[in-house]
Amino acid sequence: MAHAKYLKPDVLMFGTGRRWYHFAALPPFLAGICFVLYALIHATSLPRFHCEMLAFVGVVLGVTGAMMAYGRGVIVNRRKGRVTTWFILGGLRFTKTYPLDRFHSIEISRVEGRGGPSFPVVLCSDGSGRVLIDSPMLYGPAQAVAKKLAEVTGIAKIADASSGSEFVRSADEFAEPLRKRLAGETVELPPAPPNMRSSRQLAPGKIYLRIPPTGFLSSHYLTAAMFSLGAAGIGFLPVWLALTDPGLPERIKWFVGEVVLAGLAAAFLVGMLCMYPLAAMRYTVEVSPTRLRLRKRWAGRERTIDFPADKIKEIEVVDPLRHTSWWHVSHHVKGKAIFVASIDFSLTFGGGLSDAELAWLKAVIEKTLTA
Fold first, then answer.
1. Which of 314, 354, 368 is nearest to 164 (CA)?
2. N or C, where is the chain less crowded by C-beta within 10 Å?
3. Confidence band (pLDDT; 50, 70, 90) for 114?
């Protein structure tokens, strides 16, 4: 995550790295250059081994210094009407400048990585030009960056695509909670669709919505199959050597083949057992005028997430997220889901239900929150 620095009301700067890193990187970087140059100049007079060692040490020192001196950032200057991106590598600074008026919107998206999700905040233009401003690891800081960026640049539109579907709000509406936007409006409750899978229970001042598990999805089977193929890859070499050994009796080869098939089946079952908590996850949504509480139950465990009503910003029916790793693909739910975003974080639930049922649940939640 970049470190934000608000220089003036109309100047905003984001950057990674520290200035003292750049100074500390100079000695190893310069020493590495000197070692390499010395080895090249004396290549004919010194033994070959000595030259190779000097060059190797020089490259190591130079790369270490260059990595220490790396940094990147963005400066948004509304007064001068420009956006400047920069990065430093090996003590050298490279910059690129864009006119501010080419950018028309700010976008928040979501990217899955091995260390968890991140929420890039990007300045968007009509063409292919996109400038990454910051990439916080949490949804709340990403919202704060987008709002501050809108204040400095004067851009009126913020597009939030972190749910997988994009919805656009004005900069003023983006900062407003849902209850304030819906104040004075009548939330129409559509008729409950037939053959609903979820259930509703009324209680004094609140309502409980119980959403059943999705069951095993095609992505769960795919993940288990990949687990099985990974196990096959580990044992490929010894099995191949055994089956191609001309001195091994045929009955032993048949036995090895049977063991391989049994191992693949066992690996697939282990993969399905790992997917079972996701397939059996149940949701209970408690909604009242003061809060939305979500309980997730799976494999004998439970997690509760509270959304204060005055901090909820969005409730939308969206397409499911498309993740970038096999583990996150297992969270993929066919169909649509309900996306809830607060000032602090966001989540989705209700995947696998029909579109009509999701629309009905969204209307019930909004009507109860704004009661």
1. 314
2. C
3. low
